[in-house]
Design brief:
Blueprint lengths: L4 E5 H14 L4 E5 L1 H5 L3 H7 L6 E4 L2 H9 L5 E4 L6 H9 L3 E4 L2 H14 L3 E6 L11 H8 L7 E7 L8 H22 L3 E3 L3 H6 L7 E4 L22 E12 L16 E5 L24 E3 L8 E5 L2 H7 L4 H11 L1 E5 L18
Parallel strand pairs: 1-14, 2-3, 2-9, 3-4, 5-6, 6-7, 7-8
Antiparallel strand pairs: 1-10, 10-11, 10-13, 11-12
Helix pairs in contact: 4-5, 5-6, 7-8, 10-11
């Protein structure tokens, strides 16, 4: 295999989840595994958290169906409202929980369910300030006063803090969501209420309500504006690439460009921007990355391994982005190796330690 190798520590993911479950004790744990668990592999993460998470969240119906087929029996919430008849049919058949963010989302569920004799489950999304998906309060009141269908079971209501690091903004959203929830429960009865993702749990346990949705925290990182003061979280992904060539540079440049290394040792690392790395400024690279490789000043010999990622926050800071994007990009094309062990650092001709798991 010539793919970049992502080593995923399942024990770290499980320990991170247990930390948040304990911190938000009394609330159900929803493990967010959208985008293939932020590049870590949704099926493997869901299996690892089968005794820790009460339910899972994905972005798309297709992701939820894949999780079902991988053996996940717990509830799966789809965070993006359905956009087609096909999505509703597939989601209902797989017993997924839809998001309803406006009256048209609800009408689509009703129409498809009546057409095919289905029943759909959903959570209402309340727009409390993010302005991405969700009813306005006035829009919800108009909707809930209209005709409702027995074929669509409304089981929950949720929202999302858009600046959880800002106490004043978050509190205002929470107050608004409380008002929204009270109105919804007058119509639908007792609902599962949730607004906190990783940042909300770190901001205040007052916001945990019935359920918390933990995403980036599962994988060992926290949102901007927060820190892991207790050192409780452990990053779950390390990324390695193999050296495909080694040489002494005697003329010309290196990769796409000149080099100030007239006679030094160079190696070609089998990793490039198609593997999720940023084209500019890879550690050790002589010039910009190529699509599938880069040239580095390094004496590691052919077939040896180089560790390219240990800290997604540090890499993100160096490239003007966030750890979320780094993990999703790098985990997407990689060969994932799942381990549950202490490990050393791969170097030289050694393969990454621990092997598969």
């Amino acid at each position: 295999m010539q793919k970049v190798r992502a080593e995923i520590r399942l024990d770290h993911i499980r320990n991170n989840a247990e930390y948040f479950a304990e911190r938000a004790k009394g609330a159900a744990m929803c493990a967010v595994v959208k985008a293939d668990a932020y590049g870590h592999g949704a099926a493997a993460v869901a299996q690892t958290l089968r005794n820790t998470a009460d339910c899972f969240a994905v972005s798309l119906v297709e992701e939820g169906a894949q999780l079902r087929h991988a053996g996940t029996e717990r509830d799966i919430l789809v965070l993006t409202p359905p956009l087609s008849e096909e999505e509703v049919v597939r989601g209902a058949a797989e017993d997924l929980i839809f998001t309803v963010g406006d009256a048209r989302d609800y009408a689509l569920l009703v129409r498809v369910c009546e057409k095919f004799g289905l029943v759909a489950r959903c959570h209402v999304k309340a727009n409390t300030g993010m302005n991405r998906y969700g009813f306005s309060y006035a829009g919800f009141c108009r909707f809930s006063g209209g005709k409702l269908s027995d074929r669509v079971a409304v089981e929950g209501i949720y929202s999302h803090f858009y600046r959880p690091e800002d106490a004043q903004t978050t509190e205002a959203q929470f107050v608004y969501f409380t008002k929204f929830s009270e109105a919804a429960e007058k119509v639908f009865g007792r609902l599962t209420k949730h607004i906190s993702a990783t940042g909300g749990v770190l901001a205040s346990l007052r916001y945990r309500l019935d359920m918390v949705r933990i995403g980036i925290g599962l994988y060992g990182y926290v949102p901007g504006g927060f820190s892991d003061k207790e050192g409780a979280l452990k990053p779950a992904m390390r990324v390695y690439a193999q050296v495909a060539s080694g040489r002494k540079k005697v003329f010309g440049g290196a990769g796409y460009g000149k080099t100030d290394c007239p006679n030094g040792r160079l190696c070609t690392v089998r990793a490039g921007y198609a593997d999720g790395f940023w084209r500019e400024g890879a550690e050790g690279s002589v010039n910009v990355l190529c699509m599938d490789a880069y040239v580095a000043r390094n004496s590691v010999s052919k077939y040896g391994y180089i560790e390219l990622l240990t800290d997604a926050d540090a890499y993100a800071q160096a490239h003007g982005t966030i750890s979320y994007e780094v993990l999703v990009r790098m985990g997407g094309r990689a060969e994932r190796v799942y381990v549950e062990c202490e490990r050393g650092t791969a170097a030289g001709n050694e393969a990454p330690p621990c092997g598969g798991g």
